User: Fold this.
Amino acid sequence: MSARIRAPRAEGLRPPTRREMLRSASTGFGMLAAAALLAEDAPSAEPSGPRRPHYGAKVKNVIFCYMSGGMSHVDTFDPKPRLAKEAGDPMPFETERTMFNQDGNIFPSPWAFRRRGRSGIPVSDLFPHVSGMADELCVIRSMTAKFMEHAQSNYYFHCGLPFAGFPSMGAWVTYGLGSENRNLPGFVVTGGGGIPHGGINMMGNGFLPSVNQASLIHPGRDEPLRNVVPSEPGRRQRRQLDFVRRMDEGFLSSVRSHEPIEAAIRNYETAYRMQSAVPELVELAGETEATRKLYGVDSPNPSTAAYAKQCLLARRLVERGVRFVELTMVSTPGKSDGMGNPWDQHGGLEVGHGANALTVDQPVGAMLKDLKARGLLEETLVIFSGEFGRTPFAQGTIGRDHNPYGFSLWLAGGGLKKGFVYGQTDEYGYRVVENSCTVHDLHATVLHLLGLDHHSLSYRFGGRDYRLTDVHGNIIRGILA
Assistant:
């Protein structure tokens, strides 16, 4: 079958372009195939500025302190006196298969728990600074996970599914709400040198528009963001960007699927503006000496100082309207095999957890105190969690294996009950026995606090409507104020 190709009148006769050929020849089936490859069925991206939530939001921003590796709940926020009473005894009931199946006997916590604040929330001696803000915490002791392997659990916790290719919580939040700062991305991951096992894709945008992907900023490096220093003089770079914009806008008129091109245009422009915004953002010297001391920016412990810079940067980011900030763990003396999962103490629990807590306790406690003093805590949601918990019995003699059947995390910020404990594990801290919560429930609750209905926040991809909570998730109403 042949088709006549009509050349544009203004240009006279000329050979057809490939795009015109795809659109005109064979009744347009070529362009139809190209459109499918460009995800034509996906909805066009909305402007990257702020968008209205579905209903009244309790908070505007999220700071996610991810304790990768699996922090032990029975050593931090879920005291179990029975472990001390039965120390060294075998577990009195049958347990599930563990990651390494080197199960030992009951292992009591090396740290004492004390009731903190007016609320009396028990917090272990690992966290003297965070415990000073106990009356702001909402502790969930009844979290569960579906997986006990790090990479799968990390993806599940971030994306709601245990494998790569799907959008993270931060990407969904920025897709739903946009950004309040046109000079900075809506989703920032602060780098400390290590990414949780599974890789950077767990913080990616998946099939969502590329404008929703995370930007990785390292506050301690000479170049905190790659290529943030212009390679061309400002006027020449502006001319190059204007040329690229004109080319992209010309292409827009030729295809029906505008989203990838529109997202690329916005990314170019945001990157251009970030070249002036980021250096000012990461310049912490302007903070007062009292603030730097509060966070531990100049701590003699290098890992504490590194994490303090992330926490201080997180406060500065939410001050500037960045929607979602994730903090990553840093190298600690007790973890010599890499930084991807520093809380993963299969042996040497006391050394490893002690070093990790020393790294994060002062900075996180300071961040909560600082946010509250500035009136930002009520409009910010802070999440502090790992991907699963750890066993109440030993792996070998001085470590703990992975435990997805019950663990703890805490939240702080607007819309939550304060100085509150929700849910319960059994007397050994092994399984949830009251108010069991899933990661999907947590995601639904985070979106709810941001004013987003997790059922309605969806995106069509591959012929199916996807959402962060997949086909699951219930808002944890028992923790809402």
